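Re-run with default settings, no changes from the original entry. Doing this only to confirm the output is reproducible before filing.
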Amino acid sequence: MSLNLSVKRAHPMPARELPPPDPSAWDAFDQLATMVAVVTPDGQCLFVNAVLESVIGLSRRTLNTRTLFEWFREPAALMDAIAAVAGNEFSTRRFEGSLRRAVVGHAEPLPVHVIVSQTEHTHTRLLVEMIEIEQQTRLDREERAMGQAEVTKELIRNLAHEIKNPLGGIRGAAQLLAMDLASPELIEYTQVIIHEADRLQTLVDRLLAPHRKPHVVGDVNIHEVCERVRSLALVEHSRGLTVVRDYDASIPEFRGDREQLIQALLNIVHNACQALSERIEQGDAEIILRTRVGRQVTIGKQRWRLALELHIQDNGPGVPEALRDRIFYPLVSGREGGSGLGLTLAQTFVQQHQGTIECDSEPGRTVFKIVVPLP
């Protein structure tokens, strides 16, 4: 679908003799998080950056022997835009299209916003930038989620402190009252007060716990974290549950709080086990722990050259649709008797490592994805 957003030039630029293109002059495009190609007016690729290589799934050398038109589902809009910009009718043309991919398992075209721009040598070279529409939507969603998390944490912190202050007084008064009572029945009532005050104190401590900063004690090996959580899950569910390892051994260690990351992953796996209770009884419950390296990853408003991607996938019934937008909110639980703090704590611990966490769920397949920047 063409948006026809264009910038018109008043006067044509005179053509002149040019030296042959120097690909090294375009190396800076490899540092961008968007897809970039430098093409001739007939669409021949002179250069493609690393992101476009990764998205299409072919090497730069292969792509440079073909035209960019081949990778668009409807190339007519791209042809028209390149012709208009190369002919100096416009300095920039924008439209929305669909990019085909050669990557196995990605049969669906990728919706992109395309910007065709002039360069210093427009009659021989044009710049085509492609921005993944889904990526922009995801970044907006992450930014909203992080803002909401900060507001929520501040609210919880204030509320927890307001609750914590009088709890000590209530418990102390109940203890003093129990010392002056002779009737065992009345003493039993004071014990109820003490017990409930202790329970609330535990809840408040859990609410306040995430606000401590990560205690960086050394390098963290994410696979040691996964193995620790995997062993705990299998001890609790020795039958009916399979925890599959799908690790990328090339992932480097990074600085972080190992215990916080174990707790974050354990909370997610624990929730998955509870959702899989019926399948565990049937003997076909499965959780997959998958690690991968992401390249040129944007988290919040910052771009990282490398990032850890940790996927926790289960074959349970999925997150109820009514909860999908709120599962990381505190005190929101899809399970009767649940505290609604497990995923909130997991999100907080991941964010304290400059990372992000998101969920994609449908019946039979739920995936929590943790992304943490790597050195």
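The longest helix spans residues 133-180. The chain has nine helices and 13 strands.
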